[in-house]
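Late entry, written up from scratch paper. The run itself happened at the end of the previous shift, but nothing got recorded in the book at the time, so transcribing now.
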Amino acid sequence: MFRKNEYRQKSLLFGPEMILSGRLLSQLQRSWAAIFRTEVFERIDEGLFSPLYSEQASRPNAPVNVLMGFEIIKAGQGWSDEELYEALSFDMRLRYALGIEDMVSELPFTLRTLYNFRARVQKYAREEGGNLYQKVFEQVTDEHLEAYRVSAHLQRMDSTQVMSNVAQTNRLTLLISVLQVGVKGLTAEEQALWQEKAGFYLRKRAHEIVFGIRKKEMPAHFQKLGQLLRELQEALPPDEGEDEMVKRVLKEQYKEGDDGEWGLREAEEISADSLQSPYDMEATYRKKNGKAYAGGYVVNVSETSASENELQLITDIQVAPNVTDDSELLQQSVSNQMERGHAIKEVTTDGGYTGPETSAFCTAHDITHRPTNVRGGKSASEKLGWEAYTWDLETMTEVCPQGQQGTILPARKSDRWVVHFLDEVQCQTCPLLKQCRVQLQKRNGPTLRVTTRNIEVALIRQGLRPEDRSLRTVVEGTVRSLKWHLRKDKLPVRGQTSALMYFSAVAVMVNLRRIHAYMSKITSKYDPTSGILFTFLWLLANLKLRERSQRRFEAFSETDHLLTFVFPSTSFLPARLLNDAA
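Output as recorded:
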């Protein structure tokens, strides 16, 4: 049964206000833990998670905002579950950040509760199509944008490659791993039969088996594994996870020849979105900047960039198979943010996001796309680039680098154009004739043939601004802040859903650090040793704190025997409590 966490109604003897001195309490309230508590923990909408629990009267759930806060801190700090759980048991700052007022009691959840919570979120994502961790990030971030008056109409965007938490494999290791996982989908009796039939491939780990196979023996093993996988497919229950996996790997790795025999496909026939590991069905293969990412994802991050913002925040986070084009990610991110109410007017990216689809999308939504480079459309070194010509699509005229004007006319094929120049003599004597794209035709005179895409790319290149590079470079630092604790860009999780859960939590923590730095910068402008107003407010706050502590002590000391029963010796009482009592 779902129940919200009503921690704020509690008033405990062993709260931080009763245990800590005034100086230490002041430090705690200025620390990141206090900012996390007010800006993240108390903002989490627990109602988002109500569909995960039964509506019938039953045992209530563990505090959802505590579990979610645990996930955010863990991902943002790069800790393991065990490390953070142990730290939370003894670190007062962590307890305070998660609203655990009683500093000496047991935690309100166990690690098993946390594991079950994650499993529920993953199941909900598979069945309902919504990632609740991402929704928490969006809900908290939208509140931050409003609370700190951060404008989101100007944004910058960048993507990065990460690896799933799976071992790197070759084709033989992959096929053996698929066979091993597929056999586990059979009944116990069938598994016993397969141990006799394919015991060589089932008794050890896949990489250990491959280590003992010589190169000249590999073709025979590929042939044998293909036969075993086809038999396994027939034995597996249809439309189950193992059955779909075996079907997929057979289709991607094998093909039927003209003679009816099945053989292994050539390496160049394997597509980039083929299965990379049976333990992560969504991870794909991509080679970028000379580095191969086998079994990975692309993470796309958007953040505010308006110069009037004193605070810049991450506004959107996406995780997709690494074969996904950046142009598609831009369209998805902008569409998602527009649904959330962000009036985006301008987006700055690198050249990877450019393309006809991006141009059409931005035009349709009245968004200015400011790339720092353009993908494709590059000219040969010996030829002038299309951007060397001046294109005026309103008057349908074009001016060459030497100043001669031509008329743009439609060609026979769609999306193609012909430019005719009148002065043939000028073209023949032009010093750029060898580099120019103009063709000297006897019938039509100087003629230039161009496509619509050539013109679009040329106009984009002409509109590139050097200042955009420094604007976009900042987002590269944001990308590094999202994955600084990853070793060799490898995630601690598997699967696209888990990867999005992970980066959504990290993004919340990155924004929290920025808010903390922003608040610290503001408060550092005031010197507590000077200023009448600040001194008055400081004294007032301490007087209220002392009065609240006195009331709490009186509540516990209405009768002498109660205090004697709880504390047989006053040496156990905190010094602050004894001073207040005196």
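The longest strand covers residues 291-304.
(Scratch paper discarded after transcription.)
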